[in-house]
Amino acid sequence: MEDRNSRLTRIGQVVSAGKMDKTIVVSIVSRVNHPIYKKVVKKTKKFKVHDEKNECGVGDTVMIMETRPLSKDKYYRLVKIIEKAK
To answer: Of 85, 86, 17, nearest to 46 (Cα)?
Structure first.
């Protein structure tokens, strides 16, 4: 049986909060080499994340973890807030 700690965790920034109940949108930026030009390019991916207590605000840095599907496109949950926005 798979251990809970083996689930994928990511760190990103909240880009939308308060528009949906118990849901935030987290943007995760990764840097990858372009296959042809070999230049480092930023790639951004947005995830909808379950925030049970509605405690996150826009600009917060958060840690999220994979979970079972909670809705059509929400399959991550909030683990902790690393840094609140100033």
So the answer is: 17
